[in-house]
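Example for tutorial group B:
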């Protein structure tokens, strides 16, 4: 698992690394473009939405939304990623922040039509994921949605099959979503859906 310095170093090559993995239909980024496009299309159902992007990275998703007039707040713990994102979206509110240590006060005082996170929350273990989701839910507007696109599996069996297939470069330090193992806890705090996208990617849709 890369630390902050590692992501700073990777920032300039991140998008190309994703493309190579995706083009070859390999873990971890097989289905990446479809994940991004599906979330983009969902947000585009509303004009001028208020969007919080957690783990904004190089703003692959958010800069497209920004270009269509949506209001973007973004968080990332890599200063270099933030620099790249801000250059794409000069008027967006993009902040350097390690979300695993909590949200900035100014973010917690706002409401969002959509809270999105793509390929970031797998750095949290399942308990941390649940605590973080519970922190995010009050930030939604009445009809707001949390959209999480990530390395994710319907079941432990599907994760293990992917792990076996990708054993040469599997990251044992990351905590991937297994929907069947999270759904009971999720249903206690929100309404949830899971949409598989590829053999190693999926989208969780959470509402209050």
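The residue assignment follows.
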């Amino acid at each position: 698992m890369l630390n902050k310095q590692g992501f700073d170093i990777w920032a300039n090559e991140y998008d190309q690394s994703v493309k190579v993995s995706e083009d070859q239909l390999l873990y971890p980024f097989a289905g990446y473009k479809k994940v991004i496009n599906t979330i983009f299309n969902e947000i585009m159902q509303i004009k001028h939405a208020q969007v919080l992007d957690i783990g904004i990275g190089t703003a692959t998703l958010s800069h497209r939304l920004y270009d269509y007039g949506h209001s973007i707040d973004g968080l990332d713990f890599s200063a270099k990623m933030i620099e790249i994102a801000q250059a794409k979206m000069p008027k967006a509110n993009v902040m350097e922040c390690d979300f695993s240590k909590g949200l900035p006060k100014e973010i917690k005082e706002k409401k969002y039509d959509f809270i999105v996170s793509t390929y970031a929350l797998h750095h949290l273990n399942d308990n941390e994921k649940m605590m973080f989701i519970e922190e995010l839910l009050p930030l939604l507007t009445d009809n707001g949605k949390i959209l999480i696109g990530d390395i994710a599996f319907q079941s432990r069996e599907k994760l293990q099959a992917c792990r076996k297939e990708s054993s040469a470069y599997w990251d044992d330090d990351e905590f991937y979503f297994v929907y069947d193992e999270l759904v009971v806890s999720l249903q206690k705090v929100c309404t949830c859906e899971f949409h598989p996208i590829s053999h190693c990617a999926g989208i969780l849709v959470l509402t209050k």
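The longest strand covers residues 140-153. Compare this with the pattern of hydrophobic and polar residues in the output above.
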